[in-house]
Amino acid sequence: MDKIKLIESQFTKKDLPVFGVGDTVKVMTRIPEGPDKFRLHPFEGVVISKEGSGAREHFTVRKVSYGEGIERIFPLNSPSIERIEIIRSGKVKRAKLYYLRNKVGKRATKIESKEEKE
After folding, report:
1. What confidence tens digit (pLDDT) does each residue in 61-91 have?
2. Which CATH class is domain 3-103?
3. Which strands form 68-75's sheet, in the order they lie side by side?
């Protein structure tokens, strides 16, 4: 086996859900508050891109908060990610949803779900 793949297999998480671009997810991240304490902070939004493979895979989540668009890039195998919950799965025809940056209001967050389309 290739040495790089062997090392990457040690750092990949196995218990992550399968999600794609257009899905609305809630990412629970660990925020340290003391030497041995932490709290979970949720970040809920639409996945607008996924890039990379193996241990280097990351995804971008976008949400609109108080009229401002906020994007955050999460490494998929980061130890600071406690869990990822899929709120709604969306059906899109693009691999990157960067056009949502120009949308305002409900148009920026409304993506047809797979159940509505079928």
Report:
1. 999 888 888 999 999 988 899 999 999 988 8
2. mainly beta
3. 68-75, 58-65, 38-51, 24-32, 81-88
